């Protein structure tokens, strides 16, 4: 891969002298969905697929971008003196947003760069291609200019840029999982205070299989911000009767005790998901530590049902994939992952059942939805690095 993207960089930007090669992973969340902005726990892991970058410092303040995934767009140009969101700038708003966020934090970027990207994360799949680009850009800036920032800082800067520059009110999970990834471990993260622990993923005789619905969705134009607003209103209503800082502070029993303070049935369902999903995530990690993978799978299934019925973010495509998965022998658990409204499902499947799983779920999905899904058997990888 390194040789391939260096060669392309040379073709596009005139030689590869002085260029360095980088990688940042994508991520999948095993359980704990739509909890990260509700002060709850999440359990994501970094993947071995992600975004590759080749970068070279310039002597001026010009920015030149090229993506091998959107090569028909050619070289897109910008400047460090004009870091502002621009719809016409397309995907380059993500790296530019991170540069802007660094400068907002007082890090002066003295020179521009030539930057080539290549991602092998399916675009629009919900495996965090945008967060991968953000963390990668931050990692490149740190390496190129010697900025004193930790990997955790890179996650926070990436989230800040997505919130403030790109207008998507995302939580911290995606950037954190990518910046802090560790091979063969998932990250049990409390999004309220960023306390975390690495939990080894031991799936003896099973693997993680991701099914991509191929229904494209964009976070900014989905109902993501609407869900977040509903939860914020529900929290404010609950705070009138109980002293909490976030929905993640409540147990299931406490929620049932105080839920009548939420004036609207829909908001009550949204808040219920946030509370119960947080507790499911805690229980899922306990199950994993006890090597009870069957219980982990049951909690994954329950998570999907809650996302379908209480949070209403699944949609026909994701439901078709998950419901087909539940019918296949050898499936330990299956659920949607990511923001929803398209994107992917994540399943834990016994290794000897994977071929049958892909065949059966693929056929059922094609019959129900009318176009094909793509399947990826994935490994859990490390965070960003120089290649």
Outline the structure in words:
By secondary structure, the protein is of the alpha+beta class. The chain has a domain at 2-200: Ribosomal Protein S5, domain 2. Helices cover 40% and strands 21% of the residues. The protein has helices at residues 2-13, 93-104, 129-145, 151-164, 173-179, 224-239, 252-258, 265-289, 293-309, 315-326, 354-369, and strands at residues 20-29, 41-42, 44-57, 62-67, 76-79, 113-119, 185-190, 195-200, 206-212, 331-337, 344-350, 374-378, 385-386. Strand 10 (331-337) and strand 11 (344-350) form a beta hairpin. The protein is globular.
Taking all Cα atoms into account, the compactness measure Rg is 21 Å
**What low-confidence regions span 5 or more consecutive residues with pLDDT below 50?**
none
Question: Could you estimate the helical fraction of the residues in percent?
Answer: 40-55%
Order of helices and strands: HEEEEEHEHHHEEEHHHHHEEHEE
End-to-end distance: 10 Å
Content-based structural category: alpha+beta
Average pLDDT score = 95
Q: Largest beta sheet, briefly?
A: 6 strands, mixed
Global morphology: globular
Number of helices: 11
User: Approximately what portion of the residues adopt beta-strand conformation?
Assistant: 15-25%
Instruction: Identify the strand order in the major beta sheet.
Output: 5-4-6-3-1-13
């Amino acid at each position: 891969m390194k040789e391939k993207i260096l060669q392309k960089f040379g073709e596009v930007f005139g030689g590869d002298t002085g260029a360095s090669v980088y990688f940042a992973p994508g991520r999948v969340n095993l359980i704990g969905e739509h909890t990260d902005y509700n002060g709850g726990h999440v359990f994501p892991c970094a993947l071995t697929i992600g975004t590759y970058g080749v970068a070279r410092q310039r002597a001026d303040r010009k920015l030149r971008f090229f993506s091998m995934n959107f090569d028909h767009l050619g070289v897109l140009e910008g400047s460090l003196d004009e870091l502002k969101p621009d719809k016409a700038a397309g995907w380059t708003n993500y790296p530019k947003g991170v540069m802007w966020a660094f400068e907002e934090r007082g890090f002066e970027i003295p020179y521009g760069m030539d930057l080539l990207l290549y991602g092998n994360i399916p675009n629009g799949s919900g495996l965090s291609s945008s967060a991968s680009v953000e963390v990668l850009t931050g990692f490149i800036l740190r390496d190129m200019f010697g900025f004193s920032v930790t990997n955790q800082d890179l996650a926070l800067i990436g989230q800040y840029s997505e919130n403030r520059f790109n207008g998507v009110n995302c939580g911290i999970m995606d950037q954190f999982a990518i910046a802090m990834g560790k091979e063969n471990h998932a990250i049990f993260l409390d999004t309220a205070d960023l306390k975390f622990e690495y939990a080894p993923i031991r799936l003896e005789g099973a693997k993680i299989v991701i099914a991509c619905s191929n229904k494209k969705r964009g976070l900014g134009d989905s109902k993501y911000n609407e869900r977040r607003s509903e939860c914020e209103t529900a929290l404010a209503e609950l705070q009138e009767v109980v002293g909490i800082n976030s929905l993640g502070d409540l147990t299931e029993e406490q929620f049932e005790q105080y839920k009548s303070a939420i004036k609207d049935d829909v908001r009550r369902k949204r808040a219920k998901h946030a509370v119960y999903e947080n507790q499911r995530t805690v229980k899922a990690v306990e199950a994993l530590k006890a090597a009870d993978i069957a219980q982990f799978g049951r909690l994954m299934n329950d998570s999907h049902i809650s996302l379908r019925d209480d949070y209403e973010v699944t949609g026909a495509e994701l439901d078709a994939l998950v419901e087909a998965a539940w019918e296949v022998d050898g499936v330990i658990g299956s659920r949607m992952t990511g923001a929803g409204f398209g994107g992917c499902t994540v399943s834990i499947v016994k290794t000897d059942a994977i071929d049958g799983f892909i065949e059966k779920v693929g056929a059922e999905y094609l019959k129900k939805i009318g176009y094909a899904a793509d399947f990826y058997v994935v490994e859990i990888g490390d965070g960003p690095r120089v290649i």
